[in-house]
Amino acid sequence: MKTKITFLKMSFLLASFLITSTSAMAATFYTCSGTTLNLGVTNLPAGTSALWDVKKDGTQFAGYPSATAPTSFTDPGSYEVILVSQTDAASGQCSSDPVSNTIIILPPLAFSLNAPSVPAYCQSNNTVNSSDITQTGAALSPVSGSDLVLEYTYSVNNGTTTVDGSTVGTIDQATGKFTLTTTTPGVYVITGKVKYKQATTFTNTLLGTGCEVTATTTQTVTVTQTPGQPTVTITAP
Description:
It is a single chain. With 237 residues, this protein is mostly beta strands. The chain is built from no helices and 20 strands. The chain has two domains: 3-105, Sandwich (Immunoglobulin-like), CATH 2.60.40; 112-224, Immunoglobulin-like.
């Protein structure tokens, strides 16, 4: 008896999966609040019908058991989704073992940008030619174990165009710090985003787009132009 879990195509803000099973093997998935989930069943034993049960953090979830599978969950927590094939005992048909999968709804991420370490610097200054912007609030939830990491992205606007922050600075993915390093004069407005991302090595799968949030604040750094060389005049009395 085998359990086969097949993923359907994911699209923007949509994560879905198809459970095909005749055994009780369990799997765990991470996703975000409100993500649409499509739970379908194949290989249901003849003469039986599907019954879904849900427990949240070990407690019976309201509205279940039900013949209708859940399509999304709102509150963060661990949801055990159990598929039971049920039959009338008098029919003589055999029911299959329950199929249990866990869906972990990740807590929403918080994210704000702190004031720049250097609000302004000169394009040609040899000692200060960058500015650091650290973040506050974004932290990897313990429920993700080693399966997930955080991914930070930054965009920078110079008043006329918006570019990827990595083209005018560097991003420390371990801490979320952005360092503006451009020496092109201008006023730069910096915006950041963060989301959950699948780790390189993982056991449990992340479904969906990772609960991305934009920083509640933006920060501005000015790169000043090198002034023209002064003129020295020398006269004698």
